[in-house]
Amino acid sequence: MQFNNTDKRYNQFSAYLKNKFGARVYKITLDAGFSCPNRDGKISRGGCIFCDEGGSFSQAHSNLLSIEDQVQEGIKNLTSRFKAEKFMSYFQAFSNTYKPAGELKKIYDSALCDDRIVGLSIGTRPDCVDDEKLKLISEYKDDYYTWIEYGLQSVHDKTLKRINRGHDYDCFLRAYEKTKAYGINVCVHVIFGLWETHDEIMQTAKELARLNVDGVKIHQLCALEHTKLADMYRAGEIDFMSEDEYIQTVCDFLEYLSPQTTIHRLAGNGFSKTLIAPKWLGKKMDCLNKIDRTFLERNSWQGSKYCG
């Protein structure tokens, strides 16, 4: 099966965007200085055990810069490196709906300050949205390719409790259904290696297939400096997936998803300065090439086990 006129056996988001807009679309990662109710004590303290001081932010820019300046700096860098022509503003750090709707509008508007921006993506938690905020975000979708990215991580409440997520699966489900009712695209983040069995991970895949989610972003659990997870690793309380186990699990997972679901991430190369374990993490192209080879060896593809 072919996706987006490429040789990939999964629905790669970057290729999907290129087909949609006629050119590569590059994400500009933004830090608007948001916090998180799982860190500031509103629902609990300490945050998720894997979250560091950057709140999953790539540190590509400083939040000392205005949003407009971050956008222009991002455009300048991406144009210089890749001759980029089109962009998506991506609010990545912490929970980017964790302010009143009036303040959010000013922040989101400031991220759309250049005619070359074609999309808006907002990373947040399912317990940080309501009708007023979703209505606001839905108002951008006529002019911009608009996404909300929810950090789910797993459909299993026991796992969410263990990682101190601060919400359960039902909370995600309510937010997801409400977001879709407003016509907003949803990308769901999941993490592999959360001490779940292979069958439990596949249950998450089957549930996302049942929901027919628009996008999925897959992460490998890793220990970064200044996190609870790093303390647990140094105390010998946990271990991590091997690279081969991760690759096999990725292919298994994608086989259950709908072929229409876009895949936003399978491997990353960030966190090099703060990564403690697993050491194999970070070789992005090597990991992606191995995923491609595994699909070829299996003669399989995303959706080959999708039940519809």
DSSP strand count:
9
The CATH class designation is: Alpha Beta
The portion of residues assigned to helices is 25-40%
Mean pLDDT, all residues: 92
- CATH fold description: TIM Barrel
Q: Sheet with the most strands?
A: 7 strands, parallel
Shape: globular
Largest beta sheet: what is the strand line-up? 1-2-3-4-5-6-8
Order of helices and strands: HEHEHEHEHHEHEEHHEEH
Spans of at least 5 consecutive residues whose pLDDT stays below 50 are 57-61
Integer-rounded radius of gyration: 19 Å
Q: Cα distance, first to last residue? A: 17 Å
Total of domains: 1
Structural class of the helices, strands and pairings?
A: alpha/beta
Instruction: Give the percentage of residues in beta strands.
Output: 15-25%
Instruction: Specify the CATH architecture.
Output: Alpha-Beta Barrel
The CATH superfamily is Aldolase class I
Number of helices: 10
